[in-house]
Amino acid sequence: MSAAQQDTTNDEIEDSSAPLIEHLAELRTRLIHSVGAFIVGMVICFTVWNPIFNFLTEPLCSAMSARGETGDCGLILIKLQEGFFVAISISLLGGLVLSFPYISYQMWRFVAPGLYRSEKNAFLPFLVSSPAMFFLGAAFAFYVVTPLAFDFFLGFQQPGSVLGDGDSDNGIAGIAFQGSAQEYLSLTIKFIVAFGLCFQLPVLLTLMGKAGLVSAEGLGNVRKYAVVAILVLAALVTPPDVITQVILFVVVYGLYEISIFLVRRVETKREERLRAEGYYDDEDDAESEAEADADLADAEDPLLKEDPLMKEFDSAEDDTQGDTQDDTGPEDPNAPKKTD
Q1: In this predicted structure, which of 84-88, 145-149, 156-160, 323-327 has the lowest mean pLDDT?
Q2: CA angle 232, 237, 243 (to 5 degrees)
Q3: What percent of the chain has pLDDT over 90?
Q4: Which pLDDT score is estimated for 37?
Q5: Cα–chain center distance at 322
Q6: Burial (0-12, 13-18, 19+ Cβ within 10 Å), 95
Q7: What does pTM read for this prediction?
Q8: Residues 180, 76 contacting (CB under 8 angstroms)
Q9: How many CA atoms lie within 13 A of 268 on its CB side?
Q10: pLDDT for 211-236, tens place per residue?
């Protein structure tokens, strides 16, 4: 290979690799901005982690107050370093919440240049509705589910008695709640994240329906399997409390039905758009369906089957088809060939 051809090949390789390098540089910039925003949000939440922790313990304190247990909520630090890790956990959660809008904006800035205008208009509503549905699910978990769950857990306490000198046979062992601050925070975050993800179901299924991966008919056909999956999810996520499990099942199943409705709307709009562009012909489709229905009705009519005229007509038609096949059959090799 000559030097000129080698230079041309190198130039082609550099031209083809330049867009990839530019995309990687753009991705690095967006990731740096996202990580920076997360760190800033984490530092802000670390400075005010005590008010955030007081806010997160409000359901527990309310449940204990409703049972007449006034005073301290009873959370303790089992390990020496547990308070520090509680502050770190709150900082991580709060930093993610504060920086999520900016991180979503950076994701959009990276993806948007590679999308058409129609794709941008289709994708942007899902990017906005996803965090909104997550916060809605988190609020539902915090204000509805956690009070019921904590009230259920606190129901296993019992008052005890101090044993006297001559009353050892009537002593009762007391069971009092003295929970770990880190364990309580972990359980609360689990509820919030689980319900926030469950509320993403309409957004996910609608986006898949818009991409053509699922259909409203298909989702309706697997409804019984979805019911079983939702029941298993309710048993895993919520405590062994029937009321809480029923609430989660009703909410998630309602979201599933809403998803079917939204996917059906997406399919209807897509069909209207294709029909407006001329891909569908309603008259031809109607005529074809009418002819198919008429033929099916005639074939299933018992009177027509027993009619002798129809039988004679069918036999004559079969004979005509047989004669046509004989006329167009293979040529006899012994027959004389025609000459001009």
Answers
A1: 323-327
A2: 85
A3: 8
A4: 92
A5: 60
A6: buried
A7: 0.67
A8: yes
A9: 6
A10: 778 888 888 888 889 889 888 887 77
Structure token digits, residue 61: 């304190």
Residue type, 86: V
Q: Are 137 and 199 in contact (CB under 8 A)?
A: yes
Distances (CA, A) of 176 to 83, 157, 159: 22, 5, 7
Q: Distance between CA atoms of 30 and 38, rounded to whole angstroms?
A: 12
Sign, CA torsion 204/209/212/215: positive
278 sits in the region (left: phi over 0; alpha: psi -120 to 50; else beta) called: left
The CA–CA distances, whole Å, from 307 to 277, 302, 303, 313 equal 48, 9, 6, 10
Q: Which residues pair with 180 in a beta bridge?
A: 76
Location of structure tokens 């359980």: 187
Task: List the end-to-end C-alpha distance of the chain, in Å, as a whole number.
Answer: 64
| Residues 303/246, Cβ–Cβ less than 8 Å | no
The Cα–Cα gap between 210 and 215 comes to: 9
User: Is residue 164 pLDDT above 60, yes or no?
Assistant: no
193-197, 225-229, 308-312: which has the minimum mean pLDDT? 308-312
Contact 262, 201 (CB under 8 A): no
Q: What is the pLDDT of residues 120-142, one digit of tens each?
A: 777 777 888 888 888 898 898 88
Q: State mean pLDDT over 57-68.
A: 83
Amino acid letter at 302?
A: P
Q: What whole-number distance in Å separates Cα of residue 292 and Cα of residue 117?
A: 41
